[in-house]
Amino acid sequence: MMAALGPMARRLRNASLLAAAAGIVLLVVVGRQSGEAWLPSYLFVWLFVLALSLGSLAWVAVHNLTGGDWGEATRPFTQAALRLFPLNVLLGMPLLFAPAQLLPWMNATGGADAGLAAGQHWYLNSPFFYFRAVVYFVIWLSLAWLLRDDGAAAARAADRRNSSRQAVSAVGFVLYALTTTFAAVDWTMSLTPPWHSTAFGLLIGTGQALSALAGAILCANALASGVDAAMRRRFHDLGNLSLALVLVWAYLAFMQFLIMWIEDLPDEIAWLLLRSRTSWSVLTGFLVVTHFVLPFLLLLSRNAKRAPAVLAAIGALMLLAGLADSFWLVVPIFRPRGFELQWSDLGALLAIGGLWLGCLIFVIGMPAADPLRGALAPGSGEHGTQRA
């Protein structure tokens, strides 16, 4: 798919793999000392890297349906992330060691003793839970296989116009939306069984798309061989897409908060109070600033969106916000006394993040010149050249 790795890429890949080895050792040490206390840390990091692959799946499907030259800039990252779905499956296996330590309803016999409301037990039970997880990954792995490509730019543009590929993308995007919604309920919302939110699946999907786009921007900047007018147009497109997603995420997050605050139901408000009335509120404020305020203000600038290095810095900020958001959604229920960082958090980040990044760099290799050289791919179109 790509040429051989350059020296800098090889060093980063090797450093990532060494960090992964150190993280595994640290997790083993923490596990021997504290039992299954490492599981929440592992879960939030795994959900974050899984989000990068899932968001990439969504972007590939969207680009196949809509076209636009921006897709050539995102292609190295998104196509590599699709190829890492098997790794995501393997990385999720350690969570099977003690799932009941994460999901309180797995210890329930009738439901009420684990906080399950009447009528929830038919959905939150172990056999159905594992069956759904298998279905999710079968669908995601199949779509990743069907949507991957290795051709040159002209061949890819012609392939995107192929009706069968567009049909796969259309159906695949619908399947992505459905499966990520249910997976968000299963793997995040059910950590607190009484709590529910109808906007949660859409909020998670938006966050996945935003994190994947941020990763693609960083990758495109790293692989860029020169900044010309066409290259600036591509990054301008990516900046506009980022701004739109930042606004959508902020709207959904605020509406979820507003509805919970207005209803003031005991089961729902407890979830919110944990993150707003304890020291977890510091992380809540951090998310407001990094996930919305700063990206929104910075992306209003046309010059910032057309400068690859500046947009990459904004992408790094959004990627950090995505990681913090995953931490904020998963960990507080396991540390109700307040905000706390543990060694297992660092171990999981090094182990999973290092291995995932090292494998991503290995798959990408050196920049395939045509996606990022600046010239437009035939048939790709010049979307997003308007002033904004």
Description:
With 388 residues, the chain is an all-alpha fold. It has one domain (7-102, 123-372). The chain has 15 helices and no strands. The longest helix is centred in the middle third of the chain and has 35 residues, at 229-263. It is globular and about 60 Å long. Residues 110-114 and 366-388 have low confidence and may be disordered.
What is the gist of this entry?
The chain is 71% helix and 0% strand.
Query: H/E order of the elements?
Result: HHHHHHHHHHHHHHH
The portion of residues forming beta strands comes to under 5%
* Content-based structural category: mainly alpha
Q: How many structural domains can be distinguished in the coordinates?
A: 1
Number of strands: 0
Helix content: over 70%
Question: In angstroms, what is the radius of gyration?
Answer: 21 Å
Describe the sheet with the most strands: none
Shape: globular
Q: What does the average pLDDT come to?
A: 86
Distance between the termini: 35 Å
- Counted by DSSP, the helix tally is 15
Low-pLDDT sequence parts: 110-114, 366-388
